[in-house]
Automatic annotation (TrEMBL):
CDD domains named among the record's database cross-references: ASKHA_ATPase_ROK
Superkingdom field: Bacteria
TM stretches of this protein: none
Family the entry assigns: Belongs to the ROK (NagC/XylR) family.
Name of a matching Pfam family: ROK
GO molecular function: kinase activity
Protein name in the entry: Glucokinase
UniProt entry keywords in alphabetical sequence: Kinase, Transferase
Amino acid sequence: MPIAIGVDVGGSHIACAAIDIETLTIIEESYYYSVINNKDTKELILQTWGNVINKTINEIRNKEIIGIGFAMPGPFNYKTGTALFKGNDKYESLYEVSIALELPKYLLIKNIPIRFLNDATAFGVGGSLKGGHGICKKVLAITLGTGFGAAFLNNFIPVVKGKSVPLGGCLWDKPFQKGIADDYFSTRWFVSKYKMYSNGENVEGVKEIVTKNDVYSLKIFNEFAINLSDFLASYVLDFNSNLLVLGGSISKAHHLFLSNLVNIWKKKNINIEVLVLENTEQANIIGASYLFNTNFWETIKNDLPLF
């Protein structure tokens, strides 16, 4: 039974598990999770990542481990395994660090293949494979959390070039209003908006805004729905998507914005099925481990995004 370790790197956490790549199931007791301070030094971040992965390795030490796949947020060079985090408020100490070369120093297994996939792509692949939506040929998957991720999938294969998708198949860096998409569809936008509308009240994150359920919360989520619908509309149409998959911590508050977004699109004759996946981490881990499916890897390895 070939086993791959799938790793989900989030803006404030790391999670990993061993996956049977034939059945795409998590090996019992191999799942581990840790909170991460994304402002830490390079050494502390890599050490924490290594410690968590090593726990999973220890659980399957007598099995055949064929590789480690990472679901990694951008900006990142997915071909070389080099971090390019700069100016997006996370992991900036890893800027221009080769994770592929540096991380094995902290692992129990030194000579093991390590592959990287955009986290939103991994989410879309894992979610589509395990979500029973194999008949949906064209999927736009987005993750809403500390950052904004997106992926375009055609029959589970990431589409990163061509007239129907933006360059690299990414959306986080695309212009929107007075900045880029990541400025408007991430946690920091919610926090700054709440402070502005409430005349200076600070909140920790989206969960607190949801819990407050006050006039400011409702105003912010209404504005978010309008912004997200406006931004995504042209990409949905250009790619001719028939399924939108939502994940990430902000998507857990979908009851506050999703119906509004769908209604806006219906008025524009944009009709698309929407699937919200509650367990983003599991989808990311499975999608990352799928890098060691031979057919999948041979299809995508030469078209991995460089940013």
